[in-house]
Each structure stands twice: as C-alpha cells, then as structure tokens.
Amino acid sequence: MSLTATILLIYAACLAGTIASPARSQDDHPQDDRASEGPGTRRLLAALLVPALALLAGLQAPPARAGEAAPRIVSGPATVIDGATLDLGGRRLRLYGMDAPDLDQTCSDGHERDYSCGRAAAAALTARIGGESVTCELREADGSATALCRRDGEDLAAWMVANGYAIADRSAPAAYEAQDRRAWGRRVGLWSGVFEIPADRRRMRRASASL
Q1: Taking residues 85-96, what's their average pLDDT?
Q2: Which of the residues 4, 56, 165, 205 could staple to 124 if both were Cys, CB 3.0 to 4.6 A apart?
Q3: Number of domains within the chain
Q4: Residue 196 lies in a domain
Q5: How many Cα atoms occupy the beta-carbon half-sphere of 100 within 13 Å?
Q6: pLDDT at position 139, please?
Q7: Residue 86's closest CA among 149, 21, 171?
Q8: Are 80 and 33 found together in one domain?
Q9: How far does the signal peptide extend, from start to end residue (predicted)?
Q10: Helices (H), 3-91
C-alpha cells in the first residue's frame, strides 16, 4: 500500500472513531465543549469521511488508461512462409520492424554470382526456429498482421537483420537500425554483395503490372 493510501486509511479510521464515540459527560468538560459536539459536528465529520473513503478506494483500484489494450500473445509451432513471414496456428504474421527478400528474389554475392537470397532468408529463419515453439506479440495498430516473435526469448527479427538475411524496415521508427549497421559493417548476408531493397522491388513490380 502506498504512503498516501496509508495516511488516508488512518484519517478515515480516526473520523470513524470520532463519530462513533459517546458524548462526553457534563462533569468532564465545560458547557462550550459540549455544545461543539452536537449533531452539526457529527454531520460534518460524516461528510468528510465519505470522500476520504472514496479516494482511498480509487487508490486501491486505479482505472485502466484510456485506449490502453493488453498485448495479445500467441505461441506454438511456427511454419516459415518466407524470410519475413510465419504461419502460427493458421494465422500469417509478418515479423515486425524488418523486411526480407521474397522467395523469388535473386541477389548477387561478393563474387557477383547470382543466388536465391529469398530462399536463403527463409532457410535461415527455419533453421533458427529449429522446430521450437515461437511466442509472438501481435501488433495490429496499423491494420497489418505484424508481430514481435521470439524463440527461447530471442528476437527473431533482430537475429535475421543482424546476420544480413533481412534489413530493417524503414517504415518502422528506429527498428533494428543498429543490427542493420552491424551487418553492413561486417558485409554479411545481403550486404556481402548487391541486392534490391525488397519493398522497392515489390513497388516496381506492382507498377509494371499496372501498365
């Protein structure tokens, strides 16, 4: 219990005791003291007691913040759809804060040899999960089914970005930028060669398809 709540509780108890105490006798106190203990005084003390108890009850059970919702957590075996997407219990979730090449995307390595970077990303994520249970915190504030997913407490998106299999999502504020810079500095994964930004590649393909 907080200090404020304790003080209020003591205050309420004192008021209750004063109200319930018997009137003092004429022999113990002068006439003017007896007059001060009339019905008006008791009504005043009772009026003070009610808001004190109400405030104490409010401290004991604070209301939930407006618009605040408890995060939804799902867990279980996960199937990798691609380097950025999991199927968890029949629901497809994209890993929040990162982006990975699509399965059909091709990149070039450090020796200018083409390879399927999309399939490499999916294979890396599959190997990292390794058949273990995955726990995901759903994030749907933006209307998309994204989630922060962990395996044994390890952030899967952070691991993918740090090892160059994915990049930080530029639309997610400050998400995994440090891991992105580390992977670029080490020239690992996508950063070892040449690749298209996955989101830009999708945008270009949609524009071409609409012509």
Answers
A1: 94
A2: 165
A3: 2
A4: yes
A5: 34
A6: 83
A7: 149
A8: no
A9: 1-25
A10: 3-20, 31-36, 39-60
